[in-house]
Structures are given as C-alpha cells and as structure tokens.
Amino acid sequence: MRISQFFTAALLPFSALAAKKPTGDRFQDSNAAQLANGRPLQLDDKSYDALTKGPRDYSVAVLLTALDARFSCTLCKAFQPEWEMLGKQWSKGDKKAESRLVFGTLDFLDGKQTFQSMALQTAPVLLLFRPTTGPNAYNDPIPARFDFSSGTDKAEPIHTWLSRQLPNVPHPPFVRPLNYLKIGVTITIVLGVITFIAAAWPVFMPIIQNRNLWAALSLIAVLLFTSGHMFNHIRKVPYVAGDGKGGISYFAGGFQNQFGLETQIVAGMYGILAFATISLALKVPRIADPRAQQIAVFVWGGVILGMYSFLLSVFRIKNGGYPFWLPPF
Amino acid sequence: MASATKPQSTASGVFFEGETARNTRGLLRIIILCTIAATAVASRLFSVIRFESIIHEFDPWFNFRATKYLVQNGFYDFWDWFDDRTWHPLGRVTGGTLYPGLMVTSGAIWHALRAISLPVDIRNICVLLAPGFSGLTAFASYLLTSELSDSPSAGLLAAIFMGIAPGYISRSVAGSYDNEAIAIFLLVFTFYLWIKAVKEGSVMWGAFAALFYGYMVSAWGGYVFITNLLPLHAFVLICMGRFSPRLYVSYTTWYALGTLASMQIPFVGFLPIRSSEHMSALGVFGLLQLVGFTDYIRQQLPSKQFQLLLRTLVLVIFVVAFGLLVLLTVSGTIAPWTGRFYSLWDTGYAKIHIPIIASVSEHQPTAWPAFFFDLNMLIWLFPAGVYMCFRSLKDEQVFVVIYAVLASYFAGVMVRLMLTLTPVVCIAAAMALSQILDTFLVAGEPAEPIEAPSTKTNDAKDKTVPGIPEVLRSTKGPLVGIYSYMSKAMITGAVTCYLLLFVMHCTWVTSNAYSSPSVVLASRLPDGSQHIIDDYREAYYWLRQNTKPDAKVMSWWDYGYQIGGMADRPTLVDNNTWNNTHIATVGKAMSSREEVSYPIMRQHEVDYVLVVFGGLLGYSGDDINKFLWMIRIAEGIWPDEVKERDFFTSRGEYRVDDEAPPAMKNSLMYKMSYYNFDKLFPAGQAQDRVRGSRLPAQGPELSTVEEAFTSENWIVRIYKVKDLDNLGRSHQDAGAFEKGNKKKKAGKRKGARVLRVD
C-alpha cells in the first residue's frame, strides 16, 4: 500500500510532463506542467526538494497544506480553490513566463518529511523561494513566509504579497471570475419574490400592515442588539465552552467576554421581563374577573421578581464586585 | 417652563380640583423637575469631591486648551487658529478641524459671568459644564416624553432616569469636558422640537429644530445620527401612507434651515451636499416634494387613471434620481462614506482597513454586561416601552420605535454609541413604568364587572388614531382597572423596591466606575485610607519645568493632548488622529530597532520620548499593552519593515519574558519600558505585574536615548534623545567602546587577583 502510494506520487510529475517533451530545464518543465494541468503542481517530498534546491534562477511559491479530512483544517480547505485559481491565472496571464514563478502544492500526506524537517506545527503555510541566481537573484536563501494568522482565505492578499515580494517581474492581474450561477440564482429569486408579492398583494398587504408583526420584529431586533448579539457577530465568540470538568459553562467569566448561548439566555430573560411588564400594564387591567386578576397580578409580579433576581445573580458572575441582589437568587 | 405649567394630566386628583388643582400640579412639577436637575448635577460631582476640580482623560485636555485659547485671544483668532505645537512638523489647522460648539458655549458662559461681576476661572466652568448641561438634558427628556405619552408621570420618570442613568453619566461627570457633554442635551432637545414640529406642522417649531440642529452640528460629530434619523422618520411615515401637510412643512423647514446652519461650521463646510452620510436627508427632501405634488394634484383631479400615471411618474423620477446619485458617487463628486461611518455597517471593515479606528477602545463592540451596567433595569423596561408605542401608533410614536431599533444596533456595534441609546431607553422605560404606576396607583376601585364592564376607565389611553382600526392583541379587551388593594400594594411596593435598587445601582456605578479622572489614579492602602497616584502630572510638570519650551516630545498618540495641555510642549501626534501616516511613523519608531528609530527621531527633531509603563504598579493601560496596535498601524504603511508576526513567539503568544521574540526585545518601546527595571529587584527576580511574567535576567541596554526622568511609580518614563556622537561614530559603537573600556579594566583586576592567588 505504502509502496504503491509512494510510487504513484513519484510518478506524478513525470506523468504530467509526459504531455510535453522534457527539456531538462527545471523551470520550463514545471511551468509547462502547470499550464497543462491548469493548477499548481502537486508536489511530494522528492519533487519538492528537486524543485526548490539551489542554485535556482526562478521563484517557487509552495503552499504547504493539510487537506485530508483527518486534520480538519478548515482554512486549508477554504483556501485551496483560491490557491488553484491564483496559480492558474498567474501562469495563464504570464504566457512568456517572464515572472519565472512556479506554483506548487505540497499536501501533508505526500510531504511528511518536509513538514518534519521544517518543524511545522500548523497549516497552511505559504513559502516563496526567490531565485538565487540570475538577474533577480536574492541573496537571502531563507524562503519568505506568508502569514496566515489573520485568517485570510482569499487570493487577493496573496497576490499582493507575491507582487510585493517579487518587485522586478511582471505581475499578471488576478481577476475573480464572475459567478454566473450565483448571479442567475439571485436574479431568479428576486424576480420570483417580486412576482409572488405582486400576485399575492391582497393577501400580502394586511401582513405588512399588521401591527403585531411589526411590533414583534422591532422587539426581536431590540432584544438581539441589547443582549450583545453584535459582539458575537464581530468577535466570533464560541457558542458555549466547557468548564474543564466535562460540563458546560453557560456564562463566560469576565466583563468583556460572553458566549453565544449566554447572550441568548440574557435576551430570553429580558424578553420574559418585558413580557411580564407588558402583561401587568396592559393585560391585567383588562381582566374582568377580580379573582383571575388577582392571580394574574401575583403570577406576573412573581415572574418579574424571580427573573430580575436571577438576572442580578448572573450579573454578579460577570462582575465580581457587584454588591446588589434580590431574593430569592 | 411654559409647558411644565400646562395641564398635562387628565387623571383626576383626589384632593385637588379645578383651577387650584392645575396650579398645584404645575408647582409640584416644577419643584420635582428642579430636584431632578439638582440630583443630576450632584451625582456627577464624585470626582470633584474625591480628587479636585480637574479635567479628565484625554480629549477634554484638548478642549480645555482650545477654550483657554478662545478666552485669551477672542473668537476670530480662535476661528483662524493654526496650531504649530501639535503634529510637529506639520501643524494643524485647528480652527477649521474642530467642532467649536463646546468651547464657544463655555466661552460665552465665562463672558456672561464676568459681565455680572462673577469672575470664575475658566477651568471651573469647563469642569462643571457637563453636570450643568445634564440638568438641562433631564428637563429636555421631560419635555420630549410629555409629547410622546399621555401619562402625567412618564415625563417626570424619564427626566429622573435620564438624570442618573450611568450610560449618560459615563460621559458627563464633572471634569469630562468633552463634546458629548453638551451634545446629548442638544440631541434630546432637537428631537423634542422635531416631534413638536411634526405634531403641529408649524414652521416655528421646525425652525427651532433647525436652529438646535445647527448648534448640535457645531458641537459633536454625532450630529449625523440626527441627520439620518429625522429623514428616516419622515420616510417611514410616507411609506405608512401618513403623508400630511404637517410633515411636509416641518421637514422642509428643518432641512432647508438646518442644512444652511450646519454649513456655517468650517469643519463641516460643504459636506451636507457632498457626502453620502447626508444624502438620505436630501433624498427624502426631494421625495417629499414629489409626494406633496402628487397629493396636491390628487386633491384637484380625483381621476383614477391620473393617479396611476402620477404614481408611475413618481416611481420613474425616484429611480432616475437614485441612478443619478449612484453616478455622482461613482464619478467622485459625492464623497464616499467616511471610514468611521462605514465601519458601523460593515463591522469587519475597520479591522482590515483602518486599524487606527479599530484600536480605540470606545469603538469596540458592546458585550451584554455593559448594557446592564449602564442601564440596569431600564434595559428590560425598554422593550416593554417600545411595545407600548405600538398601541396608539401615532407619528411621534413611530419615531420612538425607529430610534429604538437604530440606536440599539449602533450601541451594539460601538461601546461609545451607548450614549445615543440612553435617551430612548430612558423615554421608553418611563413610558412602560408610568403605565404600570398609572394602572396600579389609582385609589378608587372599579365596579364589579356584572354591573358595568367597561365604564371605569381611569384614563383616555385607548384612543387609537382614526383610520387605523387595527389594535394590538394585548389591548383588545375593554379596560377595567385593578380591583384589589392587595394587588395594588404588591405591585407598587415591588416597583418602589426596583426603583430604589436602580438608584443605588446608578450611584454605585457612578462612584466606582465613572468618577476616576484617569489622570490621577486612586488606590487603597491596607488600612483603608486613600492613596493618590499622581505620576502623570508629576511627569508632565517635570517636562514643563525642565525642558526647553519648544522641545518636541514623541509619545504614542493617546498622550498627545495631555502633553499639550499639561506640559505645554509640542508633540508629534495626538488624539486628533487626522494623519495616519504620521502616527504610523511614530509606531514604526517605537517598534523598530534603535538603529532604525534613531534616524526617524532625528528627522522629526524629537528631543524627548515618553512612554507609559505599568509593570511596577500593575497598571494595565500601559504602552506595552497598546504596543500591538502601534505595530499594526505601522505595518499598514510599511508592511515590509514592521511585521506583526515577528512580535509573537512561534506559538503565537505575546510575551515579554525570556522567550520574547528578538523583534520584541530589540524594539525601542520594549527597551524603554524595561530599561533598568531589573535593578529594582534582586538579580533575576524582576517581575512585570501587568503581564504577570518574569523578565530576563539581563535588562535591555539603550544606546541612542538616555533616561531623563522616571516618575514615582514608574508609570511615566521620559528619555532624552542623544545628540550625534562627537567622533562621528554610531551610538552603538560608542557604547561598545565605553563598555569595552570598563570590561578591560575589570578583566585586569581579575587577572591581578588570579596572579596573587597563584
């Protein structure tokens, strides 16, 4: 199994090259293979070493990645199509190969030794080997490394980075292809919705004019925003976290932290409190039966007290020095 | 106080009747409002009592300096003020790049007091301006809420909520001499005038609204909120089919006069007709003309076909106008959205494109505890109040709903915009609570339902606007009232408890969180007595007294205004942040090696470098914690020379101890912060109390700057930039030479000792 895998992997570059007669020049061979494949070269340990060893009069951009499902590297998977698109466009746009740049991809499964020799713990890693000889020779043998830590998974920043690193060669522009399917789907949906609204206007009109609907929408918006939903959205906080003992921690410690679930709980508490207030103010005085009214007052008053007390106790978790509380919590 | 004496209430008093009752209630109202204003002022005085009458934080120091300039040099000089003591060597056209409303207001108060022979120090006016205006804000929210609600108590409740809500106190304690100090009053009062104008359709109220809108524009950049909220209100009313001559008159008056007024401010200039932020106001103005025209024609010619034609015409014109707008925007005649405004909608925008905006702590998103901290129980009364606005959805209540939704969104995106949310929260909460109080505080008992189910209505609350037959689900039944005294006592008691808790919460928050001047820090000694840490002022006064008056001080921009205000020395960058490149230059100087930084400092004629260091005291707001932002901002301009990645360890940690990456250890900021710090501790024991890490045994060495001053608790450290070496060597060589000498001597001695032993 292993041998066969190695075998096929070793054969890969040759099979790609078989389309065109190898000339012996490493750059021209690789570039021709890349053009024939229409995507960056698929490398393994051996071809990686062959391609990047010096002296070298061309540049190599290698993406070290881990695409296998076992590694569950979401960034690798998200970035892979972008990378292939960029490689394809660059080599297509640079027909005369004046930039002398080869794109390659080295998956962890094919290049374990390379990963180990560089002591890489994370993926993806983008390395750029600049030429060591020739007119654009660069005297630093250490490859430049692109920083993925900002979480970018788009091709444009890579293109800018490559252009900056290779100042004296032409830079084929990167144009994001139009997604015709998406445009078509959007137009169809918009037209469909318009048609639907036009057709269902008599039914639709009372719905938009429904005051209860608008009241509900406004209240949901207000509750979402005042319970810190935008914070979750911007900071991308986790939904819940473990408490280290196998259980779930519902409330994040600290004043400036929160979990997704936590904000929903808080929004729920605000909602219950507001609903109880509305009931006390508007519904209770409309109950005609004195006994039922008495019970309603007790129930809603109790709900407010209990909920508010619980809210205060939750707030004391967030803010340790907070001195106020209400019974029962 | 005219409207305070008006008979607002329809609730029948038990003890008072007729004309006397009206007067009594009016008098009570005035007394209550005055008490509320006094409370609002008093609760903001913690810092003055605890510390002294001092200007707080950062921006207020600039405002204070500008006010002093205004008072000393007069209005016209102030208007044309070019300040060559900031942004060295660029300078700043200060008169044309600030909102003058705040300074002019305090200047006017100062002159008025002098005119009646009360010579008050301008500093005291500046310190007490914000509390004074908060009293007016409470009054303005009373007026606004009284317009929005029929209940006699809603206005008073809103006033007291507004007076003591921490969300507003946070920006208006004594000494917090910032634009927001007067802007919130202007915001609420402009809304009041607008509501009044829409209700009465009067040119006079519309003109007043425009006048105060102009004042608001002169006072705070947040005026854009009004500029967009009022058109949105008008637009929603049109969409609801509520176009009326009242709306037409009030909006057109406000827009025409208000735009003219706002263009008088040099900083705003032609923005109202060129920038996208103001386009909605212009668009709605145009739309109103069209709708008004159609309306007029329809009244004249009641033909169905003609109406259809007109509607099509309106639609076509709207589309064409919109296309024109897009065209103008694309061609560049209309300025695109400014970054600050744009980042409100696309929340990821600022972090990628404008790190300087993302770096400000006020511009961070708001976590839920901050809402509760600033508004306490109002935050859950708020949705209830918004719901009650839907009960009789009149024009003014539509305004509250729009304001509530928009302001909660903005407050969620940016902590600082909590300030614009607070008024509507107070108003809506007051409407909800007054509804409960009005229901449960009625002394009389309704009749039994068998006899008369719907006769007892204590208030005319259930009126709905004619033409909108629909009602909310919770208000379908006829109003009866509360039967048992037990229920009344229970709810009233509970509400009283909650209100007391609210007052205690507000006092506690104000006293603990919002009353620190941040120029002066307070701590408690073990015996409970207060210890004042006054390092900032110590350092600034050192600068003032020991350096040349034109010595340039380089520091991170946070301290620019304070250096200008307290030390009176020229600075390279300050909190105005108008020139990102200049700030990035300072960031680069701070985050690079000395060999790189020194030429930068020489080129900018820097004499002193000031850093803030909290490691000894455990003061977390220091420069090492802000350092990443300096790196990021510098990286934005020089991506090849400064790299954020280099300042993290290979495992992605931000460290200052032995494992700190070389870029970190060699940066000027790191060296200046920890220079000689290890000498305070036994060898190898140096401990940074903020980061909680042990520092390298060998402390950093400086060659191009020398320590000039370090404050008592090491919070502020000032370094003097060395002159060029006399022998033309680099400072590193010179330093190595000096050290080499010493080493040789030490070696000789050692050698001698060895010899003797042998």
From TrEMBL, chain A:
The keyword ATP-binding does not apply. Residues 1-18 form the signal peptide. InterPro entries: OligosaccharylTrfase_OST3/OST6, Thioredoxin-like_sf. It is a multi-pass membrane protein. One of its GO terms (biological process) is protein N-linked glycosylation via asparagine. Belongs to the OST3/OST6 family. This is Uncharacterized protein.
From TrEMBL, chain B:
Its EC number is 2.4.99.18. It is found in: Endoplasmic reticulum membrane. One of its GO terms (biological process) is post-translational protein modification. Residues 28-429 form the Oligosaccharyl transferase STT3 N-terminal domain. Its cofactor is Mn(2+); Mg(2+). Residues 552-602 form the STT3/PglB/AglB core domain. Pfam families: STT3, STT3-PglB_core. Keywords: Endoplasmic reticulum, Glycoprotein, Glycosyltransferase, Magnesium, Manganese, Membrane, Metal-binding, Transferase, Transmembrane, Transmembrane helix. The chain crosses the membrane at residues 30-51, 97-113, 125-145, 151-169, 181-197, 247-273, 279-297, 309-335, 370-390, 397-415, 489-510. It comes from the Eukaryota. Residues 741-758 have a biased composition (Basic residues). It catalyses: a di-trans,poly-cis-dolichyl diphosphooligosaccharide + L-asparaginyl-[protein] = N(4)-(oligosaccharide-(1->4)-N-acetyl-beta-D-glucosaminyl-(1->4)-N-acetyl-beta-D-glucosaminyl)-L-asparaginyl-[protein] + a di-trans,poly-cis-dolichyl diphosphate + H(+). GO terms for cellular component: oligosaccharyltransferase complex. Pathway: Protein modification; protein glycosylation. It is an enzyme of class 2 (transferase). InterPro entries: Oligo_trans_STT3, STT3-PglB_core, STT3_N. Residues 730-758 are annotated as: Disordered. GO terms for molecular function: dolichyl-diphosphooligosaccharide-protein glycotransferase activity; metal ion binding. The keyword Transferase applies. It is a multi-pass membrane protein. Belongs to the STT3 family. Catalytic subunit of the oligosaccharyl transferase (OST) complex that catalyzes the initial transfer of a defined glycan (Glc(3)Man(9)GlcNAc(2) in eukaryotes) from the lipid carrier dolichol-pyrophosphate to an asparagine residue within an Asn-X-Ser/Thr consensus motif in nascent polypeptide chains, the first step in protein N-glycosylation. N-glycosylation occurs cotranslationally and the complex associates with the Sec61 complex at the channel-forming translocon complex that mediates protein translocation across the endoplasmic reticulum (ER). This is Dolichyl-diphosphooligosaccharide--protein glycosyltransferase subunit STT3. The lineage of its organism: Eukaryota, Fungi, Dikarya, Ascomycota, Pezizomycotina.
